[in-house]
Amino acid sequence: MRLRATRTEIVTTVVVVLLVALGVVALWPRSSSSGPTSGSPATTASADLAALRTRAALPPCPAPGGAPAAGPLAGVTVPCLGTDGVVDLGAALAGKPALLNVWASWCAPCRAELPALAEYAARPGAVTVLGIDVRDQPEPALTLLADLGVRIPSVTDPDGKLAAALSLPPAVPVSYLVAADGRVTPILPPVPFATADDVAAVAEGTAA
C-alpha cells in the first residue's frame, strides 16, 4: 500500500511541476514586433531629420519635365536632401540648362560660396541651381544650409553613383554646367564663387 501511495505522490508532483512550468511560460513577457517603436532610435532619428528638413525649408528637388534624358546623368537616381524622395537627375534636368554645385558640410570653401549660389538662384530667370552633397550625412548638411539661410534644392550621393557619372575629383567645391542636351562640363579652374554675379557670369553660358 505504501508503494502505491508513493507512486501516486510522484505522479501528482510531476503534474504540479508541469502545470507550474506552463504557467511560467504563459506569463513570460513576449518580445515586441521587430518594427521601430515610438521611442526607438530609428524613430527618433527620423523625427530629428524631419525637424531639420522643416528648419532648412529647401525648395523641392527638380522633377522630370517630359524631355528625354541624355548624357552622363541619364539613369542616375539619387536621394533628395530636403525630402524622403529620390530624383532621376537625367530626366529632371533634361531639356534645360542647369548649374550643379558639389559641396559638403565639412568643406570651408563650400560654406563661403553657398550664399552666393543661393543669391543667384533667387534671381528672376536664373538658371536652375542644384546642390550635390557628397561624402556627408544629411543631418550636418541640413544644419549648415539652415544656419546659412541657403535655400537651394540639393541631392545626396550615398552610393557614389553621381560622383562616378561626373568623374568627381577628390576636392570640393566643384561646379558643373549641364546643357539642355545633357552635356556636362566642369567649371575649370574650380575656384569658389564669391558673389552672385560670379555665378551668373558662368551660369549664363549654359543657355548656349
TrEMBL record:
Residues 67-208 form the Thioredoxin domain. Transmembrane segments: none annotated. Gene3D superfamilies: Glutaredoxin (3.40.30.10). One of its GO terms (biological process) is cytochrome complex assembly. Keywords: Cytochrome c-type biogenesis, Disulfide bond, Redox-active center, Signal-anchor, Transmembrane. It comes from the Bacteria. Pfam families: AhpC-TSA (PF00578). It is found in: Cell envelope. GO terms for cellular component: cell envelope. GO terms for molecular function: antioxidant activity; oxidoreductase activity. PANTHER family: THIOL:DISULFIDE INTERCHANGE PROTEIN DSBE (PTHR42852). This is Thioredoxin domain-containing protein. It comes from Pseudonocardia sulfidoxydans NBRC 16205.
